[in-house]
Structures are given as C-alpha cells and as structure tokens.
Amino acid sequence: MAAPILSTPSHSRDGGPILEVRNLRVEFPTRRGVLTALDDVSFDIAPGEVLGVVGESGAGKSMTGAAIIGLLEPPGRIAGGQILLNGRRIDNLPYEQMRRIRGKEIGAIFQDPLTTLNPLYTVGRQLTETMQTHLDISDREARQRAIGWLEMVGIPAAAQRVDSYPHEFSGGMRQRVVIALALCAEPKLIVADEPTTALDVSIQAQIIALLKRLAREKGTAMMLVTHDMGVIAETADRVAVMYAGCIAEIGPVREVVKAPKHPYSEGLMASIPPLDRKVDHLAGIEGAMPRLSAIPKGCAFNTRCPHVFDRCRHERPELLETGTTLATCWLYDPASEKQVPELLKDD
Amino acid sequence: MTDRRPHPRAAGAPMLAAEDLAKHFDVSRPLLQRVLAGEARRTLKAVDGVSFDIPKGTTLSLVGESGCGKSTVARLVVGLYRPSRGRVLFDGMDLETARSDAAQRRRMQMIFQDPYASLNPRWRVRDIIAEPVRAFGLVEGGAAQRERVAELLMQVGLSPLDGEKYPHEFSGGQRQRISIARALSSNPEFLVCDEPTSALDVSVQAQILNLMKDLQARLGLTYLFISHNLAVVRQVSDRIGVMYLGRLVELAPAETLFIAPRHPYTRALMEAIPDLEMTGRQRIPVGGEVPSPINPPSGCPFHPRCPLANARCKAEMPALLPPRGQPDTIVACHAVEEERDGVVPGTTVPPLPAAATGV
Ligand SMILES: Nc1ncnc2c1ncn2[C@@H]1O[C@H](COP(=O)(O)OP(=O)(O)OP(=O)(O)O)[C@@H](O)[C@H]1O
Ligand SMILES: Nc1ncnc2c1ncn2[C@@H]1O[C@H](COP(=O)(O)OP(=O)(O)O)[C@@H](O)[C@H]1O
Ligand code: SF4
Ligand code: SF4
Ligand SMILES: [Mg+2]
Ligand SMILES: [Mg+2]
C-alpha cells in the first residue's frame, strides 16, 4: 500500500505512523449535483515529523485538516477512504467520542487566535481547564503546568502573565497562547492551519522555531498547512503539494522545493519571487485553478500544464514514483508516449 | 519638527514629494470618561515626519512590520487623509490644489489590498471600469467608451467579454486585474499600490507583479508600492524606504538596501526572512514586541529591541543622514553615524549580534 516516500521510513518507530490518511474522499452535495472537494488523498505522518501541505487557495488544504479533526462543515462529508490515528480508525466515530480525541490526542491551531481564545477568561484559566478536561491533575499542578507552557511558547514573565486576559497580549503573543492551548493536553498529532500567516516575519520566526522544537522534543506529529513556502522550507520534513482536491506531489522537502517533479509544483516554486536577486520576469502558471464544478476530465492540471499530452486529457493520473518523490503525473509512467522534459529532471 | 536635510534627491523632477508628512489620530476615550478617570488626551502618531521623493517613471516601496504606518502614508499621498503636519507635492503642485482639479486628480489612482472589498458587487465589470472614464469625461459616446473598456481589459490580460460579468464570477487574481484596469482607466501617471498582492497566492502574485512591471515599462507609470514581503519588494523597486513606528529609518536604492542594509532594524528584518534556499542559514527573529505608537520609546524608537543601543540612543532621536561612502542612502541611527555598527563601506555586512532583549 504505502510507497516508501509516503511514510518516510527514517522517522517511523516500532509503532508506525501516528496519522494515516488512506484514499480520503470528501463530497459536498449541492442542488446541482455532488462536488468532490477531496479525491483520493493519501499520506502518513510519523512521530516527530512535520508534513507541510501547500497549494493555491481552494486546493483543499484546510478541508484535509478539517476532515482529520472531524470538523467538516455540513453538508460536507467523508464519502470514502479512512483516517487512522495510531492505527485506530477515527473517521467514523460518533461526535462525542471525536470531541474527546480532538482535545486530548489531536491539537488544532487555526489562523485567527481571537476566535480560539475566550476573551472573558484569563489565559491561565483556559489552559488549566483544557488540561484538566483531558489529564488527571490537581489544580496546583495544572497552574504550574500552565505557567510552564507559557514559558515554553516564549511568553516573558509567564508567572505574572498567566492571570492576564487575551486582549492584554499582542497579536503574536496571543498566537503563542493558542499554540500552548493546542499543546497543553500533550496531543500526539497537531493540525496547524496557517498558524503564522497573520503574523509579521519577526514573530513568525519565533513560532516556527517553537513548533519545530516541540515536534523534535516531544515526538509530536504535525500537519502544517500554509501557502508560505519559506515556512515550509525551514520547518517541514516532507511536503504534500495539493491541486484541485488531489495530492499533486509528495516527498522530502528539499526535493519538492528545489527539484519539483510535478509540472504544477514546478510552476508554484518558480512563482516565488527570489530574495537574493531581481529578475525581469517571474515565471508563473498561466490561468487559474478550476472550480470544483469544472474540473477537467483526465488530469485536473491539464488546462494549465505546459507539458500536457494526449493521455492527460482522457485518463486520470495515479500517484507515480519519480525517483525522489511521488507525483500524480503521466510523465512518470514509462508506458506514456511522452518523456520527462529536461526542466523536470534532476540536475 | 523640521524637515531633516540633507535628503539625497534623485535625478529628474519628482512625480511626488512628501515633505515632513505626519498624521496623528486622537485615540482618547470619550470626554466624560476621560475626565472621570483623570486621563489626558491620547494621540497616536501613525506617521510622524516622513519625507521622500519619487522620480517620474520609478517605483518607491515602503516596507515595515504591520502597524508601522505604511497604509497611512499611502492614504496621505492620495489625499484620503489630510496631513496633521507637512505636505505632499504632486508634480510640483500642492496636493490640496491638485485634488481640487479634476484634470490633476485623474493623474493619480490607488490600488487596494483586498480585491474582494474594493469592487462594487452589483455592477458589471464594464461599468466598474468605465466609471472613471465617465466621471472624468475622458471619452465621448457609448461606442468609444465600450472600445476603451475592451482595450483596458485586454491590457490587464482579460477578455473584452469579461466586461459583461459581475465581480463574484472572478478569482482573486482576476479581481485584482479588474481593480488595476479600473485604476488605469483614467490614464493615470502615478499609482499607489497598497499590498496589491498580499491576499493572493504566489502563482497569482507572480502574474500581477509581471503585469505591473510591464505596464510601467509601456506607460511610464510611477509607483508608490507598499508591501511587507521583502522578496516582492526587491522585484519591483528602484528605491526602498524602511519604516518603523511612523518614521523612515532607512531609505536607499533597492539593490544597496539588499546588499548593504545599514539600520539595525533593516538588518534584523532581512535576517528574519525564511530561508527558502535551505542553505542552513539560521533565521534570527527580531527580539521583543513592536512597541505601541501611543507611547513610543524615548530617543531612538528602536532602542528597546536594538542590539547596538547605548545611552545616547535612549536619550536622543537619531537624524536621517547619509553614511560615509553611501551618498544615495540615508539612515537614522547613531551607531551608523558613529560607525560603530561594524560595517566597513564596500564590504559585506556582518550579521547583527543577538538582540539584547531576547524573545
Ligand atoms: N460548503 C462548501 N460547499 C461547497 N464547496 C466548498 C465548501 N467549502 C469549501 N468548498 C470548496 O472546497 C475546496 C477546498 O476548500 P479549502 O477551504 O479546503 O481550500 P484551501 O486550500 O484551504 O484554501 P485557502 O488557502 O483559501 O484556505 C474549494 O474549492 C472550496 O471552494
Ligand atoms: N483611523 C484611525 N484611527 C486611529 N488609529 C489609526 C487609524 N488608522 C490607522 N491607525 C493606526 O495607525 C498605525 C499605522 O496604521 P497603518 O498605516 O494602517 O499600518 P500598516 O503599516 O499596517 O499599514 C496603527 O497603529 C493603526 O492602528
Ligand atoms: S498528467 Fe499531463 S497534464 Fe497532468 S501534470 Fe502531468 S503532464 Fe501535465
Ligand atoms: S540609534 Fe541606537 S537604538 Fe537606534 S537603531 Fe541605532 S544603535 Fe539602535
Ligand atoms: Mg485554508
Ligand atoms: Mg496596511
């Protein structure tokens, strides 16, 4: 089933991956028919590993995260596939059971810290309540740990700030409190959706360093959704590139960022303005991602792909070995009539 | 406060000159509450003494952390705010005079950050684009107007048929193209672009940046460009101004700023950028929190976060001066002026020592 690059053997321990997503399919029934928002999405995340998920707006990144934490917005529903946490299926659990797993085993970090924090309670109270819901610890112990967590996320003078209300913190500090909240019940898996997009580069660097350290030290598995490729390059071990509800490419971060094999990943990386020089013209991708109701037959990228050939317009590509990554692209099927273009080959 | 000379003036008559611009907001609580609590009035100095020139056909960019006053400068420059102090000269004319004359007004336009909020959802795209054409009476007759709209749509890479549609039928990048077509419809010479690509994906951002550069080359446009993304700024700018807490702390030719940033804040911003090339360069966060513009620190406003701060920095506000050997640059920093920032002109800039304040 899982090809080697899907599961990074170097990271898996005896127990295997913490998260396994298998052929996930999410649908939205609408008046004009059923829309497929996620189609055949598969990946694993090992303990201590950070999987970056990138792609254009609307590609399905948040949807994948929402499906994993059991918070798909109705009428969206999982229509196929499985999600396993520590080998146990969680995609078909009743709401109450999933709610308990969400606090204890999966921590979620969303983009806007204000929607996650309760403005009426001190940050200390929010932390202790979360911990005591999931861990069997005394009030004293919970308060000590709350201060410890605030220190851990880099809040200065944590013992004094623990009794502050969210509005007394700056934006960057609030986002760090949200992260402490997601971590304090010591989840095995963290799903972070654009955790630093709203922050300035200076604060972003602090938060990224913290998440990375936690994954390393506590062995937490992390799914990091962002469209900031710089954040991915420094934080992720592997990257999944999504396009129109599918995984276009998945592999080790260095390979995907510096030597992408899928034509879409290649276009995405080439669009990033370089910091170290000025260029006359930024390479990019012509056109726009199709709407869910208008995804072309065959390869979803075929309307924008510079390498498109006949087969792409009829047959849907499978996830294929490229040598360094896996890509859903017919160029990598030896049976295809077209060869891999020079541009996409290893240097 | 006085305009701090010397300012290196770029060659050629400036399209726009800002002279000691300031915008102060009254953020006091209501009078009664204030009196009861015995509080004084509170003033937020969003912009406080900013001067620059933009030569015709060039791009000046402003960068800095959120809340540093970039958008406020943009609004002052197009006349959406009246300055609390200082003035703006548009092609040598006082902005207030220029704004009262339709013939001058049509020469300047603004493109906003959010391509969703800035287009009227109930109007067809052709009417959105034609509105300035009509308002300024630029083209006579329905047929000629339709032709002009078609031309503008093609100029930004859309189809004339798109004019019949409504904004919601377009993607974010296409909507930003519509905003640009609308801004271009009055044949402006000067465009203020406030974070024009921040809401867009990188692939769409590349399309819009290419379009803006192409239009500048073809139509000789002058831009004031605002962004917090330094890589984006490097692609479009001739000169770059770095803002901190309502002031310019460094203003330099674009390439000079990237090769030899001088102000400790500029250097810290550069060091905080994620390393996409994965060279293993350590990213060093700017220590400390952004201070409040209501209660700015004494002396140099960057001193609580600056690894080079000393007693003079806490007491005395540094003036914008050209460092030795860099006549095209101005920097407001005592350490640079005293040449104790460790930079020898003409050499590569060593990293800053770790910030004194830590995280
Ligand atoms: N309630 C819904 N009904 C129908 N389609 C939906 C619904 N919610 C989301 N979608 C569609 O599902 C797709 C994936 O959405 P999702 O929000 O996961 O994208 P994303 O990659 O997270 O984008 P962004 O970067 O903008 O957050 C999009 O095409 C979106 O339009
Ligand atoms: N209308 C207003 N009333 C009060 N404060 C304002 C107003 N507009 C801006 N400010 C404040 O001025 C400062 C600079 O704002 P702005 O120029 O929007 O920053 P940015 O660099 O993010 O664009 C901020 O502290 C902001 O809160
Ligand atoms: S399958 Fe064909 S259209 Fe799709 S990415 Fe590969 S070459 Fe391009
Ligand atoms: S003036 Fe002093 S505190 Fe301000 S930037 Fe220069 S060295 Fe740092
Ligand atoms: Mg999203
Ligand atoms: Mg702004």
UniProtKB/TrEMBL annotation, chain A:
Cellular component GO terms held in the UniProt record = plasma membrane
> Per UniProt, what is one GO molecular function of this protein?
ATP hydrolysis activity
Name the GO terms of the biological process aspect. Answer: peptide transport; transmembrane transport
Where would you find this protein in the cell? Cell inner membrane
Claim: Protease is one of the keywords in the record: no
Q: How does it sit in the membrane?
A: Peripheral membrane protein
The record's listing under PROSITE patterns reads:
ABC_TRANSPORTER_1, ABC_TRANSPORTER_2
Q: What is its main location?
A: membrane
The residues covered by the ABC transporter domain are 19-269
Give UniProt keywords alphabetically: ATP-binding, Cell membrane, Membrane, Nucleotide-binding, Transport
Q: Which Pfam families match?
A: ABC_tran (PF00005), oligo_HPY (PF08352)
Q: Which family does it belong to?
A: Belongs to the ABC transporter superfamily.
Protein name according to UniProt: ABC transporter ATP-binding protein
- Species assigned in the record: Roseicella aerolata
TrEMBL record, chain B:
Per UniProt, the keywords (alphabetical) are: ATP-binding, Nucleotide-binding, Transport
Stated membrane topology is: Peripheral membrane protein
Q: What SUPFAM superfamilies does this protein's entry cite? A: P-loop containing nucleoside triphosphate hydrolases
Annotated GO molecular function terms are:
ATP binding; ATP hydrolysis activity
UniProt superkingdom: Bacteria
**Which biological processes are named by the entry's GO terms?**
peptide transport; transmembrane transport
Tell me what this protein is called: ATP-binding cassette domain-containing protein
- Specify the species: Roseicella aerolata
**Organism lineage string:** Bacteria, Pseudomonadati, Pseudomonadota, Alphaproteobacteria, Acetobacterales
